[in-house]
Amino acid sequence: MLKLRSPQGLHPIDILLVFVPISAALHYLHASPMLVFISAVLALVALTHIMAATTGIIATRVSSTVSALFNATFGNAVEFFIAIFALRQGLVEMVKASIVGSIIINVLLLVGLAMIFGGAKYKEQKFNKNAAGLSSTMLIIVVVGLAMPSLYSMIQHQPAEVMSQAVSVVLGVIYGFSLLYMLVTHRHLFVVERGVRHGRSPRAAVVMLLVSTVLAGYEANLLVGTIEPLIQRTGLTETFIGLVVIALLTNIPEHLSAISFARKDNMTLSMEIGMNSATQIALFVVPVLVLLSHYFPGTPLNLVFTPFELAAVMITAIIANAMSPDGLCHWVEGVQLVAVYLLIATVFFFL
Fold it and tell me: Maximum CA pair distance of the chain?
């Protein structure tokens, strides 16, 4: 995490924790949905930062397998909570867009900004091409998994719900095998120096992680409750809010961490944060959401995406595969990645 801390050991982002009670008060006082939305977002930024920090502390104290489980479970917890509450309210299109948004923002914007900030200090940086190559290949599999139900629905004019469930199971199994490969059979290829051990107690970190997770779930519920009034007031589409707004705001701590590691010439960890988060969303969170959505009232979540959403994921996967073979990067590549993200976001703003 970032080194910029106060003498009391608090990160500047932690100041935003004051918005946890503020957002709750605004909600119960029936304040403007815009105020509730802003306060909930600021509270979530602080809570996701704490979750990321405490997960990092726990990861230095336990085995790599348990560490991976923590990262998979809590790394994308806020996106998962928002998706669950959104599905309960019938905001299926927003959930689909947020899935696509989380994938492209972690691969394009997060990694791109890390390359830019790291490149401002170092002429050229190296990263583990084995880890990047595996993740980029997994993204190609994600494209295939999302494209098949979508093409089936377009051609047959059917919802492809059963196919979506079957594809979700396959994606989840593939994710499990990729963890087995990275953490057991070929873990020597993915050794990453994570720095010094934190001085905080792992037991305290677990308590902080659980508390912040519960609070994040509450704030996610508040945020989702303001989405429909926000759409009516701003004129933004459900798709744009999911793909850009929600995806961006829930990944701020990860962006700061990736930039911090890049500035320390640890581009491997920066790439790991972005690529692993994207594959976790696509191969772990998405299958769980698809299977759970059938227990909620309303339309269940399927893997039928729009052509523009499929194109965005496909472009992201192609770029991820293009940047991984040499294991080298510089600031111009970062500018190119950010430019592609801005182009995609611009298109969805006008849709």
Answer: 62
pLDDT of residue 6: 40
114 CB neighbour count, 10 Å cutoff: 30
Count of C-beta atoms within a 10 Å radius of residue 91: 23
- Number of helices (H), then strands (E), belonging to the chain: the values are 17, 2
CA distances for 106 relative to 88, 128, 157, 201, 295, angstroms = 26, 17, 32, 30, 29
Supply the pLDDT for residue 159: 80
Would you say residue 248 has pLDDT above 90?
Answer: no
CA terminus-to-terminus distance, the chain: 37
Lowest mean pLDDT of 50-54, 57-61, 116-120, 135-139, name the range: 57-61
DSSP for residue 17: G
Dihedral, CA of residue 31, residue 37, residue 38 and residue 39, to nearest 10: 70
Q: 114-165: per-residue pLDDT in tens?
A: 999 999 999 999 988 887 888 888 899 999 999 999 999 989 888 888 999 9
Provide DSSP, 153-200: HHHH-S--HHHHHHHHHHHHHHHHHHHHIIIIITGGGG-----SPPSS
Exposed / middle / buried, residue 145 (Cβ in 10 Å: 0-12, 13-18, 19+): buried
- CA-closest candidate to residue 303, choices 206, 171, 179: 171
- Average the pLDDT over 206-216 and give the result: 89
Please give the domain boundaries of the chain with CATH numbers for all domains.
14-350 (1.20.1420.30)
Q: Please give the Cα distance from 213 to 81 (Å, whole number).
A: 10
Joined together, the tokens standing for residue 219 give: 């704030």
> Can you tell me the distance from the alpha carbon of 173 to that of 350, in angstroms, rounded to the nearest whole number?
37
Asked whether the beta carbons of 171 and 282 are under 8 A apart, the reply is yes
Report which residue type is found at 26: L
Percent of the chain with pLDDT over 70: 88
